[in-house]
What does this fold into?
Amino acid sequence: MTKEMLEAFATLENEKGIKQEIIVDAIKAALVAAYKKNYNQAQNVEVDFDERKGNFKVMAIKTVVDEVQDARLEVSLKEALEINKAYEVGDEIKFEVTPKDFGRISAQTAKQVIMQRLREAERNHIVSEYSQYQDELVTGVVERHDNRFVYVMIDKVEAVMPRGDQMPNEVYNPQDKIRVLVTKVGNDTKGAQIVVSRTAPDMVKRLFEQEVPEVYDGTVQIVSVAREAGDRTKIAVKSDDPNIDPVGTCVGPKGARVQNVVNELGGENIDIVKYEDDPADFIANALNPVEVIAAQFGEDEDEKSALVIVPDYQLSLAIGKKGQNVRLAARLTGYKIDIRPESQVEFVDEDNGNDENVGDENPTNNEE
It folds into this structure.
């Protein structure tokens, strides 16, 4: 190795921020392994680097002993004293054992280590730069797609959108500009990886933050989001300011704000409901536009279950198509909701110890 290697180290440090000592230490470790493998050596060796010449030398480390048992690991006291009279039994001495053709191996090994460090530096740079976009919306350009992923270029970095994060009603063509939510920034065996999504519930939240200044500044808070991407979403909102209507604020004048979010999501229906501290009121709002007659809660607080009574003629509306309405309401509120029609419930006097008794007819159960 020559001064060209030293120049390469300096360039890497200046342009990529990889310090020379880090590269040199990695090359040393790789050369020790290469020496033992290529020269069938098992002795105790290390590699030294001559910073002035840019050369690597293989040094065998031997322990000074009275009587040598293994010449690969030991050197006699007599021989040690010929080198330096200060040596004593137990001291370690380095002997250069660099093979004549080791320059070729060291150059090849150094190249491999440098390329590996470059890839690691690039991965770390990507992770460091894009970690700030975790859980944020970014705009990217569709590059290509296969059976598993849609590949999206964000600036000069390729992100992946897994099948489960792709909208079922969208087709992604090369050069399409799309807004996506960054859900993961990290390293894997293949390098830095950025995972993005268009189906994550937080994407709806971020879109409202962009469309509604009151959401962005925290005047209106999005408490929870329940989403079946491409079809329907429910969001619960609240405001600590009594003069602000959180639902109307998110809907916007003539529905303009919510419509912009709907358009971005390809026509996905969005229900905005008001959050209430009272779980019965919150569940009633979540099932909107259904009229809730009563809600009875289970005794087990950890289970968080609710029996909800609705008019017979609104039973189907409460359940929704394929159970979607009650399913989303359950996710939004965090309660397991069982919908019952009014005709199946017999109300009795509170003196009997119960607010309502369920009749003998088969109930209609709708669980999350």
Q: What stands out?
A: Confidence is low (pLDDT under 50) at residues 348-368. The longest strand covers residues 177-188. Residues 102-130 form the longest helix (29 residues).
